[in-house]
């Protein structure tokens, strides 16, 4: 990957393909989680992909944490400035979707469209239980270490991961263990963002809100967040990825194809002008 020095830190990034620019913001643990999506023909012939490793992930700078959501969004903005990109589609997954929302609110001029893949938001009746589970995860990380907690966290969100993750993304679990420090020591600074109706109504961009068809059975928060965003973001539409849970396109070749086709259709209907 290439390296950009911005705001006194180094971020690894990669730009590939040709077409409309799309910035991908990864979630917790697995920085390369978008990899199966980016090789799908329906997207690869349509888009120029911009991927990067957030602070502390892989070879990007680890800085003393926790890191605020404002800092994470500013990292995105400065990377786009470094690359000479002033108006892009943005895709965020889980914790990365939280960053994508903050980028759209703080720097709306650079975000043409949003895709929110099961954003890690604390909303409604499920908020307190979700907050407590994340706090327990941080405590477990310090007590038993990265490997055990990565197994627990990923397994709770993708029950079949043990037999499928490394097949879909070779070395994926090892990457999750390596990146656990960033997840539990840096990303924890983003968790208490007060995202509510006012913030949702302040998102003017066309927004694709994605949920896995199997996620609701794992936790009510997935459906609660999904419906909240559809109800309150002015130009939002829903997309259900059948048979997938929280890791969505990473879970099978079929899921990757279906998600890529959904994104391609969204971009054709919302082209970037200029």
3D structure, described in words:
This protein is of the alpha/beta class and 274 residues long. It has one domain: Rossmann fold, CATH 3.40.50.1820. It has helices at residues 35-38, 41-44, 69-83, 95-106, 127-144, 146-157, 161-168, 172-178, 180-186, 197-201, 220-232, 253-269; strands at 2-6, 9-17, 20-25, 47-52, 88-93, 111-117, 207-212, 236-241. An 8-stranded mixed β-sheet has the order 1-2-4-3-5-6-7-8, with helices on both faces. A hairpin with a 2-residue loop joins strand 1 (2-6) and strand 2 (9-17).
Layout of helices and strands:
Blueprint: E1 2-6, E2 9-17, E3 20-25, H1 35-38, H2 41-44, E4 47-52, H3 69-83, E5 88-93, H4 95-106, E6 111-117, H5 127-144, H6 146-157, H7 161-168, H8 172-178, H9 180-186, H10 197-201, E7 207-212, H11 220-232, E8 236-241, H12 253-269
Helix pairs in contact: 3-4, 5-6, 6-8
Please give the number of β-strands.
8
Largest sheet data: 8 strands, mixed
Instruction: Specify the CATH architecture.
Output: 3-Layer(aba) Sandwich
- What do we call the CATH homologous superfamily? Alpha/Beta hydrolase fold, catalytic domain
Gap between N and C termini? 28 Å
| β-strand amount | 15-25%
Structural class: alpha/beta
Order of helices and strands: EEEHHEHEHEHHHHHHEHEH
- Give the C-level CATH assignment: Alpha Beta
Calculate Rg over CA atoms. Answer: 17 Å
* SS field, number of helical segments: 12
Shape: globular
CATH fold topology: Rossmann fold
Report the average pLDDT across residues.
94
Summarize the amount of helix as a percent range: 40-55%
Q: How are the strands of the biggest sheet laid out side by side?
A: 1-2-4-3-5-6-7-8
**Unreliable runs:** none
**Count of all domains:** 1
């Amino acid at each position: 990957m290439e390296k950009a020095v911005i705001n006194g830190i180094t971020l690894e990034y990669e730009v590939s393909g040709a077409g409309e620019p799309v910035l991908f913001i990864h979630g917790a643990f697995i920085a390369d989680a978008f990899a199966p999506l980016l090789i799908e023909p329906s997207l690869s012939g349509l888009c120029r992909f911009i991927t990067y490793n957030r602070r502390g992930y892989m070879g990007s700078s680890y800085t003393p944490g926790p890191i605020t959501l404002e800092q994470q969004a500013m990292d995105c903005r400065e990377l786009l400035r470094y690359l000479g990109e002033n108006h892009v589609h943005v895709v965020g997954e889980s914790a990365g979707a939280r960053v994508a929302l903050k980028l759209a609110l703080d720097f709306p001029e650079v975000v043409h469209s949003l895709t929110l893949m099961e954003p890690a938001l604390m909303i409604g009746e499920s908020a307190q239980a979700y907050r407590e589970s994340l706090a327990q995860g941080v405590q477990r990380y310090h007590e038993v270490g990265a490997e055990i907690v990565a197994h627990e966290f990923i397994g709770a969100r993708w029950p079949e991961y043990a037999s499928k993750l490394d097949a879909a993304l070779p070395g994926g679990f090892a990457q999750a263990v390596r990146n656990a420090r960033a997840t539990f020591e840096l990303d924890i600074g983003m968790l208490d963002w007060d995202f509510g109706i006012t913030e949702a109504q302040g998102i003017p961009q066309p927004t694709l809100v994605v949920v896995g068809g199997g996620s609701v059975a794992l936790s009510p928060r997935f459906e609660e967040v999904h419906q909240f965003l559809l109800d309150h973001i002015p130009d939002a539409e829903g997309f259900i990825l059948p048979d997938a849970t929280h890791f969505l396109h990473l879970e099978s070749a079929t899921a990757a194809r279906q998600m890529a086709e959904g994104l391609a259709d969204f971009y054709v209907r919302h082209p970037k002008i200029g």
